[in-house]
Design a protein that fits this description.
Order of helices and strands: HHHHHHH
Shape: globular
Largest sheet: none
Radius of gyration: 20 Å
Distance between the termini: 59 Å
Structural class: mainly alpha
Number of helices: 7
Number of strands: 0
Strand content: under 5%
């Protein structure tokens, strides 16, 4: 009998945990995203949509802009998860590669710009504690993360674009 009671309580606990998570989103990240979207759209309206679109099109018109500059700027200025909204300025065939590059830069940027992705900060701080215990400099770690991250996001963006284009050609 106790087994069934424990099973029922555990089953209900899943929904309690889900409700707590959902409420955390409602009171935490959702208002932040709405505010960031409002801010970004306001800035775009103030500057002018045509000017912003032209600027972003120029940057996104080449692979270095798409898979290096835009993800880095997005993560630095808009942070995670709002950085992905920079993809709105790209052609459809470039969006998957941009998203892959941007999401792959969430961790490497943390050492130099912790505000960019506070959720990854605990991972970086764990690694940093080990580096400090060895008597090494954190600045070196942060710079190396950033530079290696740039190489990785560029490669991932290019590969994802190639894979996406290959898959869409096969389905056409």
């Amino acid at each position: 009998m106790q087994f069934l009671a424990n099973l029922a309580n555990g089953f209900a606990g899943w929904f309690n945990a889900g409700g707590s998570t959902f409420w955390g989103w409602v009171t935490g990240i959702i208002p932040q995203i709405v505010c960031l979207m409002t801010f970004m759209n306001s800035i775009i309206k103030l500057i002018g949509e045509d000017r912003v679109d032209n600027f972003a099109s120029k940057i996104g018109g080449n692979v270095f802009g798409r898979y290096l500059l835009m993800p880095i700027m997005g993560m630095m200025f808009l942070c995670n998860p709002m950085a992905y909204s920079f993809g709105r300025f790209l052609k459809e065939e470039h969006k998957p590669g941009f998203y892959d590059a941007a999401v792959s830069f969430c961790h490497p940027i943390t050492g130099l710009f912790p505000h960019a992705n506070a959720g990854e900060l605990f991972v970086y701080m764990g690694i940093a504690a080990g580096i400090e215990a060895l008597g090494l400099q954190l600045g070196d770690l942060a710079i190396r993360y950033f530079l290696v991250g740039m190489v990785v996001i560029f490669i991932r963006g290019l590969l994802t674009e190639k894979i996406f284009l290959s898959m869409t050609k096969k389905n056409a």
